[in-house]
Amino acid sequence: MSKPELLSPAGDFAKMKTAIHYGADAVYLGDPRFSLRNRARNFGPEELAAAVQYAHERGVKVYVTVNTFARSIDLPYINEHIGILNEIKPDAVIISDPGIFTMFRNKASGIDLHVSTQANVTNVEAALFWERMGARRIILSRELSIEEIGEIARGADIELEAFVHGAVCLSYAGKCYLSSFMASRGANEGECTNSCRWKYALMEEKRPGQYFPVYEDDKGAYVMNSRDLCLIDHLPLLAGSGVSSFKIEGRMKGIHYVAGVTKAYREAVDLVDNPEIYQSRLAGWHDALSYFGSRGYSSGMLFRGNGQLFNFSGDFKAPEADVVGSVIEIRAGAAKLHLRAKISIGDTIEYITPGHSGQYVNVNFIRYEDGIEAVSAQADEVVLISAPGCVRKGDLARRIISE
Fold first, then answer.
1. Do 16 and 159 belong together in one domain?
2. What is the mean pLDDT of residues 334-362?
3. Could you write out the DSSP letters of every residue in 21-38?
4. Distance CA 136, CA 10 (A)
5. Which of 38, 184, 215, 391 has CB atoms 3.0–4.6 Å from 190's, for a disulfide?
């Protein structure tokens, strides 16, 4: 069994660099005008070109999202965007709209076309349709079971990509109109306000004006929120069913999320063909991923009837940590950190290092470049602190707040 691709989110250039540092085989990113995550910083034309060059120099593929549901007024701008991408030459474009798909097929024949999960591919006939249209890959609907994924893989000769981690919309393949109705911002045009996660109250029909709050207690009380998706237990099964790319959701997430989640899934993908070692590492990956599951985790709809997706576990509490800096240089026994938060003598710092876990140090010195030592240092300063030998340039350092 060949190892599937690991595909990580890149909401901006720094997050793209982080994803690559922690082992992504490919990243996905987009211009804010044509992306369903246009509140992420995203990439303008010049940054897109620089991003593709940076990734390609490191052997990493770049997929550009053009998956908005365009209106007629948008088409001239998309046509212009096609010309830009023809020059930049990303490895693929992710598309949901059939008209935009046709525009790219006719005007950008050198760029592979991937069909977005927004296209709702849920059966083999739909997969065969896109295959005949010239698509290289289908990003499967999140609503599919493992059996349905296998049926599509056996019936169509096209690459399959599946989401394995991240937030899940309470809608069919993300086609939600709640944000449009409540905030006049269309989720299908990249402007989702996460209205499903606002606070709500109930009102009984015969008691107008009497609002009963919906709140969370020790049993949990999320009405419209789903658990976050986590399929790290099931990657060998997904690979065996025919999925060739594992996708991590999260272009709106922070750099800590991109680093920690990519690192865990990189380690898992590298062991996907070694079941004994894979099972022995699961507990460690669960611990690593626990920092990023704000609503608890589930296997989504991969296994029909498991009832996990909408049953929020009220006793779930993610450990807290904050990123204090990134390593910009390694010196003998020390890491040169560009700080993102204050650190002090006595803090316990963990380095997030590819291929390693539990790289903790007690901060027993803080030294500036000129040799002056301090008891604390502030965000945006550059200092030297101690570091284990395996730490390398580009690693993030975090401080554990609570377990």
1. yes
2. 94
3. HTT-SEEEEE-TTS-TTT
4. 21
5. 38
